Amino acid sequence: MAENKRIFLSSPNMSSQGYEMEYIKLAFDTNWIAPLGQNVDGFENEMCVYTGAKQAAALSAGTAAIHLGLKAAGVKEGDRVFCQTLTFSATANPIIYLGAEPVFIDSDEKTWNMSPVALRRAFEKYPDTKYVVVVHLYGLAADIDEIKNICDEYGAVIIEDAAESLGTTYKGKMTGTFGDYGIYSFNGNKIITTSGGGMLVCNLDDETARERIQKVRFWSTQSRDPARHYQHSEIGYNYRMSNIVAGIGRGQLKVLDERVAQKRAIFARYKEAFADIADIHMMPINDFCEPNCWLTCFTLAGEKVCPNEIMDALGAENIESRPIWKPMHLQPFFEKYDYIDNGSVAEKLFTSGVCLPSDTNMTEEQQVKVISIVRSFFN
Ligand SMILES: *Cc1c(COP(=O)(O)O)cnc(C)c1O
User: How far is the CA of 134 from the centre of ligand 1 (A)?
Assistant: First the structure.
């Protein structure tokens, strides 16, 4: 029985010390069972301390954070937004919520994230574009300096989707703190989780950051003007994080460094185990990046073995695996929007890639089993 226990890609892993429960108890003891309270404020402050962001707003999801981040940046109906094509749909959906138009940007083989070459081409085609959404997939940093230089040239603002990269640094600085806005997710599969939740951070100067994040908190609690009755001069959203959920986040934050170390060890074991297999190309780790290794992924070269065979074999042993994200410009909903190509890198990553179980609850023994199933295709 025990040996057939499901092995997950990435499942929730609460602290062995019970930190999360202490903060939940604090919420119960003070009866702040609401979308505000000590844990919400505490979680925001502690995320700022951890990441180095100026200001943070705790929200109900990473998607909500992208939505309000784009809105705070000024995205409105009819605007064009450049968006990395290789990502989860949650990166692109809020562009549509705001009535704006995404233009999808291909990836760079070197980072798997937004290609600076394709981005420049996009600006040459649409020079008046003011917003760029960059993603740090699987905890790998995009080449932010290159992207930022191009955006600065065109006066465009960066919104960083760091949903998968909490704890990843680029040139020693936390991802999510380079753009005017950055977002993190605490969905159940992320490196730390609150069951569901997100955080929007602002990295502008102190005063602007305080003002913008205050506005985001206002929007996220239904845009209630100061009045005795319910008065609304702006559209509102019910996006604030609950004080219970924030308590889980505060506890999880205490073990984030430990989770990053565990994820890196998982990656290192896979890398070593597949080092002699020429057809397996591990995800790229650049000198400028210290990744959180949220998921370990590889691509397959050659024709001998295809990703589906490996995923089927793992599935038969109750082991979860997954393809790389299917690019947005290939999704039925999004295919009507423009796409700037750079040699179909995103599409090739999708068709040749596999995400391996990278669960911090996985034992070394279980990982050995995953490794031996993968290796069996190359003997
Ligand atoms: C998980 C994820 C999101 C969305 O976060 P939620 O908290 O699930 O709304 C956004 N972008 C990327 C790249 C993600 O992986």
Answer: 13
